[in-house]
Amino acid sequence: MSATAPYPGPSPIRRPLAAAAFLAALVGMVLGLLLAGAGPASAHAALTGSDPQDGAVVDTAPKEVTLSFSEAIAVGDDSIRVLDPSGKRADTEAGPKDLTEGSTVRYGVALHSGLPDGTYTVAWQAISADSHPISGAFTFSIGAPSDTTVALPSQEAGGGPVGVAYDIARYAAYGGFVLLVGGGAFVLVCWRGGASALPMQRLVVRGWLALTAATLAMLLLRNPYTGSGKFADAFDLAGLQAVLETKPGAALVSRLLLLGAAALFIAVLFGTYARREDELERKDLTFGLAVGGGVVATGIAATWAMSEHASTGIQANIAVPVDILHLLAVAAWLGGLVSLLVALYRTPEIGSGAVRRFSAVAFGSVVVLAATGIYQSWRQVGSWSALTGTRYGQLLIVKVALIGVMLAVAWFSRRWTGRLTDPAVTASASRDAEETGAEGTGTEEAAAPAQDPEADPERAAQLARQRAVLTATKKKRIRDADPERSGLRRSVLAEAAVAVVLLAVTTMLTSTEPGRTEEEAAAGSPAAAAPAADGAVNLSMPFDTGGRNGKGTVRIDIDPGRTGSNGLHVWIDGSDGKPMDVPELKLALTLEAKEIGPLPVAPDRVAEGHWSASGVLIPMAGDWKIDVTVRTSDIDQVTIDESVKIG
After folding, report:
1. What is the mean pLDDT of residues 93-119?
2. What's the rounded Cα separation, in Å, for the pair 374 and 602?
3. Are 372 and 326 in contact (CB under 8 A)?
4. 343 and 191 Cβ atoms separated by less than 8 Å
């Protein structure tokens, strides 16, 4: 039912296919022009620079360490920590200073005076303006690199079990919003009789419960999600108070208040409105519910738009209302689709008029989704390379493909809708079903002899229940005997299945770093020019000093082969393949692209033909040149080298 316009009559297959092809070509052309002419922007904040730089070796101790970001961030007292080689705090612990000037976002921490030489670790954590936690770490050295006991964080901010729980709550919140808003809109706009249908009441109430529970969970988990990553901190009152002072916390509290108003809307919709029989009074109440419900739905959608991606980056004043429209269109389309599915399977009363009205609503929703989606794609992706080379862009491609699948299934739904709304077809199916129902119920009714209700009230009540069951069974048989309705149910079920996956992908997009920002961060990363391999490094380097027994092979293992502390092992094999001792062995590491090094390494002999060194510090990722000097006699010596990517 996704994009089904009101059916005017039979139409050839070629027309919808041609229209779909034209729409796809138009969308592709517009998207291509937008992506080709896009300028720079950002969404998730990214570290764009630091002083000292990652991996730098400075002659004298700096007075402070500064970090620059691509957009505004929220920081706490311990957001930036500088640790000396022994793991002790090297900063004054006075908290970050805001050094922002103009569009350059910069924060710094002061360092203690008289810091000794060695390698220092800078660990930072903050909250991006779009509510997502970000973190990272890097090292710099004073004088010369040294061993360090500081282990770089292995878990990103927002990860771990708390991150999983928070993401589950995020998914549940979006799902609840879709059911609440889409279900309520379906009853008000498409099928007013649904206000008296118990399955529809349950659907909307469950949507409200899911959204409320998920919002409460996100509010409690927000502190550990952006901080320690421990579930116990969810009940830290000081942390909760700090969350309430942030933009995401205020948005979650606002959502809870709006859900209180939504509860009143549900009570009126399925209470007073369902019982109202006077058509004029019901019309007035419909208008009031539509206005009030629209305001509440818009407010709930705004709690996402004003605290996540849309609220940051370029054209935020345009992006926020566009995002609100996008969310409302998603809810009207997908929530209405689920409501129609429930009505077709669980209620025999829904008529062809409701299906036609939802067809029009779905068509309008898809138009809004297409327009707002194109704008959001340009704003968050920005280039063809980001569309295909980043996780955000790849998820966006998957989302577009799923929408295409839904539109294809919707075309089949449109055909069933057209037949369902044909009075001749509907009347014929109803007559056949009534005949079938009469044959099936006549015996049952005959089997129930007439009784005098006054003689036995209990028996009368039992007979009334039996008649109600028989009536419901008859209606169900009529409903199930309609082949058009059965076909429509199957196609709508297929749409709903795709919609569930589509909603999951959409939720993943909200928590994924936009492609535009990911490319900017990669371009500004010190290691961008030389992406490093992750894993132990193994080298085999033949040598020849030119003297007697001067030929052999040097084998080197660097483990784990990444930035930070590494273990190094060197083996020397003679020309006969047996271990070979040499009078002298020296190594040096150089990162020429960043003018770092040579950093000398002096391995210790541990066995014949075997040397090792622990705590070999590789300050940053890149294309490192390893120089090995081998001396086999007093005068025979050679230096060989090989480059390897280390990260």
Report:
1. 88
2. 58
3. yes
4. yes
